[in-house]
From TrEMBL:
InterPro entries: Apiosidase-like_cat_dom, GH. Pfam families: Apiosidase. Residues 31-362 form the Apiosidase-like catalytic domain. This is DUF4038 domain-containing protein. SUPFAM superfamilies: (Trans)glycosidases.
Length: 447
């Protein structure tokens, strides 16, 4: 473990009741720490539409369940989500004009008091709020603003809104996600987000900031040099996305951010949501595990974000859903939020945090060239450990000296059980024998 950071083995999976007030960046600049100096694994849930759709009893029920699972971050949109499900009540952050549009010069104090109450409830249960400040439909020059030009907040009013948000919510020590589903193809959009970053850091210098990027249709990213080099950006967040053919994005995007000239923690902020539709069906728990573990071992080790199709839009059975992506991806109708809340994949993602902390994997770095041509398998090494992810049962040859490791664990990630692996040395390579697990698995070796 890096100097100045306490080992995660000193901390607890089941906390003593003390929750971090805020989080910061480790001296190594590739993972988070809490305010006591312990490594902090970002285990977030996607609840974009909570502020507009969840009532207080529902919110309490949700928080209690996710707290039991070990989630510690909630990613929420401050402004109404353009593709949220229909809500039981109408409450908005701005007053409306006669034609039904938002008057961005007049804040609705009732809405923000409601948000404050919900944030207070979340903080009492130990969650770090990660608040999206300006989803891309509210920012000029983005792909979504071209589809919804009526949503765009003029730049001066947008900066005034950002100031208002920081003053209202900084007492909760949130992380600020300055954009959502954002492309940065225009200079206009870049200026909006640079302005938001500077405004936030001026008024809340200790707060962490990032930007949630649009999921690409092919493995690439677009983060302009001005934002990469901004002293106000604290960590990278990419979206590997939901399209069936985008299976390489968790790895390809992690690697691209890992190679950027400015080193920062990296989080896959939107892998495939459990239950969301694609061209051949819906994603299940195994798909989610595959996306997150391949991200973690490819450079995006600061944590993961989980999403359930029905939670992010806060959907209730019988209500309308506010999105149609015909011709792009058929996401299919969401589940009721209470059904989605209990998807088994959330437990798998929570188990991921447990493994990371129990084996103190915060110092791992991705390895290339140690697994031949099989890019589905990922490998990472730390000072005294090696981690290999197998997406399916298979015999695997590893071109690394496994003889220097004294102890091995093979973890069935579907059943969450541990076995002793069978290892053999032959023809200059170490062979990991195919396990009896008919699922994905994790091999961990310790010196």
């Amino acid at each position: 473990m890096k100097e100045g950071v306490r080992s995660s083995n000193e901390s607890r999976w089941c906390a003593t009741g003390l929750f971090p007030v805020r989080i910061g960046i480790a001296p190594s600049c590739d993972f988070f720490v809490d305010d006591r100096g312990y490594p902090f694994f970002w285990l977030a849930d996607t609840v974009w539409s909570a502020f507009t759709n969840a009532d207080f009893p529902e919110w309490e029920e949700y928080l209690e369940y996710r707290q039991k699972q070990g989630f510690n971050v909630l990613q929420i949109n401050i402004l109404p989500q353009h593709d949220a499900s229909e809500s039981d009540f109408e409450i908005f952050p701005f007053q409306k004009t006669a034609d039904g549009r938002f008057d961005y010069s007049t804040f609705n104090e009732e809405y923000f008091r409601r948000v404050e109450k919900m944030l207070g409830m979340a903080k009492e249960r130990g969650f770090i709020p990660a608040l999206v400040v300006l989803w891309s439909n509210y920012v000029g020059g983005t792909w979504l603003s071209r589809l919804r030009p009526q949503d765009v907040i003029p730049f001066p009013q947008a900066m005034r809104y950002v100031e208002y948000v920081v003053e209202a919510f900084r007492k909760f020590h949130p992380v600020y996600i300055i954009g959502g589903d954002t492309d940065l193809e225009s200079q206009e959009a870049v200026e909006y987000y640079l302005g938001a970053l500077e405004t936030i850091k001026t008024r809340d210098p200790q707060a962490l900031t990032t930007i949630h990027l649009l999921g690409p249709a092919e493995p690439r990213y677009h983060l302009p040099e001005e934002i990469v080099n901004s002293p106000h950006l604290d960590f990278y967040m990419y979206q590997s996305g939901h399209g069936f053919d985008w299976v390489e994005n968790p790895v390809a995007l992690a690697q691209q951010f890992y190679r950027l000239p400015v080193k920062r923690p990296i989080v896959n902020g939107e892998p495939c949501y459990e239950g969301i539709g694609h061209e051949r069906g819906r994603y299940g728990a195994a798909d989610v595990r595959r996306a997150i573990w391949r991200s973690l071992l490819s450079g995006a080790k600061a944590g993961v974000t989980y999403g359930a199709h029905g939670i992010w839009s806060w959907h209730k059975r019988g209500k309308k859903w506010g999105v149609s992506w015909e011709g792009i991806v058929d996401f299919r109708y969401p589940f009721d939020w209470r059904t989605a809340l209990r998807f088994r994949g959330a437990w798998d993602v929570a188990f991921c945090r447990f493994v990371f902390e129990a084996f103190d994997l915060f110092d791992i770095e991705p390895e290339e060239g140690s697994i031949g041509q099989n890019q589905w398998i990922r490998i990472a090494t730390g000072k005294d450990k090696i981690v290999v992810y197998f997406p399916y049962a298979a015999d695997v040859a590893i071109e690394k000296d496994l003889g220097e490791y004294r102890q091995f664990f093979l973890i069935d990630l579907e059943e969450r059980v541990v076995a002793k692996p069978v290892l053999k040395y032959s023809n200059g390579k170490w062979q990991v024998a195919m396990s009896d697990f008919n699922s994905d698995a994790l091999l961990i070796g310790r010196k």
